[in-house]
Write a structure and sequence with these properties.
alpha+beta, 4-stranded antiparallel sheet, 10 helices, about 40% helix, about 25% strand, elongated, disordered N terminus
Length: about 325
């Protein structure tokens, strides 16, 4: 019966002519967020005083400070400036979120400037009327290898009929044997899922009572968004039989390449000025991976910081 079914599939391909065009795609689908919740520790002092807090100061991680040992020795100046720029951008997100929650905020840059006079962070914050000091211990953006799919993630495959122009038409229902062949021939051999990088953002901070220096509230969260993982593949293929397919260029792509050939000198001159990445419809044009990671990191950072501020404002 299995051989009979396979024969029908092969005959279907052959009857249709010299070959049929299809577009096949794959992507990771996440069924749950699968992210651990924030770790929050509240003290009795925090629960008693949080509603009274109106003015706060923010202190950046020590890595953002101008007064590092390398800086004092006059080395690593350019690296320090780059780090300072990164700190300024990330810390501004925290200060903006606190301000939106109706807190008066003493900026980390003001704190740093005044601490240069050999004053402690608590002394400076107290002199400026702050009731609470947020000490940001670390604010990190990182990527990790996706590795094997968990029970909450799976690879899904989609198949569509197409034409000579590479247009995506109606969905194509291939039989199991043909789907297995396409997965082995195109998807599995083209990209290793272990190489896919997942963006993470980690915030570790605590709140210190200005009047006595007591650490009254602690927060740590590593957040990720597996559904935003850059794992998408798309191929434009032509099949003579159910087990004989190859990647093709669409007719439209060939026409565009012919147009390019009419003015090779112009193309060469432009290539010297600008690096152009041009891909046919059978392989989906994508942003650079670092651009996508930056966008995901930015969204994660905003999410973590919003949660940080709202968690402090509303005791559990």
């Amino acid at each position: 019966m299995r051989m009979f079914s396979l024969l029908i599939v092969v005959l279907t391909f052959l009857v249709s002519g010299c070959g049929q065009h299809y577009i096949i795609t794959s992507k990771i689908v996440t069924t749950t967020t699968n992210v651990a919740p924030p770790e929050i520790v509240e003290t009795p002092t925090y629960r008693k005083d949080v509603a009274k807090i109106k003015t706060v100061a923010v202190r950046a991680p020590s890595s953002c400070s101008d007064r590092t040992s390398d800086q004092q020795r006059g080395t690593a100046v350019s690296n320090q400036e780059l780090l300072k720029t990164k700190c300024a951008v990330d810390m501004a997100v925290i200060e903006r979120a606190l301000t939106k929650s109706s807190y008066k905020v003493i900026s980390w840059t003001v704190l740093e400037r005044e601490m240069a006079r050999n004053l402690s962070a608590l002394q400076v914050a107290d002199s400026m009327g702050a009731q609470m000091l947020f000490q940001v211990n670390s604010l990190e953006k990182s990527t990790r290898s996706f590795g094997k799919l968990s029970k909450d993630e799976k690879l899904e495959y989609f198949y569509y009929n197409s034409n000579d122009d590479g247009e995506m038409l109606d969905e194509k229902a291939f039989d199991l044997d043909t789907r297995d062949y396409l997965k082995r021939s195109f998807f599995d051999s083209k990209r290793n899922i272990d190489e896919v990088q997942v963006p993470f953002v980690t915030l570790d901070a605590n709140a210190i009572n200005i009047k006595d220096g007591e650490a009254i509230w602690f927060y740590r969260w590593t957040n990720s968004n597996p559904s935003a993982v850059d794992y998408f593949q798309q191929f434009f293929i032509k099949c003579k039989t159910s087990t004989s397919c190859r990647i093709e260029k669409s007719k439209k792509d060939d026409d565009e390449e012919d147009d390019d050939d009419d003015d090779k000198k112009t193309v060469k001159r432009l290539k010297n000025k600008l690096k152009v990445s041009k891909e046919s419809r059978y392989s989906k044009t994508e942003e650079q991976p670092e651009d996508k990671n930056a966008a995901v990191h930015s969204a994660l950072l905003n999410s973590v910081i919003d949660n940080f501020v709202s968690s402090f404002s509303k005791p559990q």
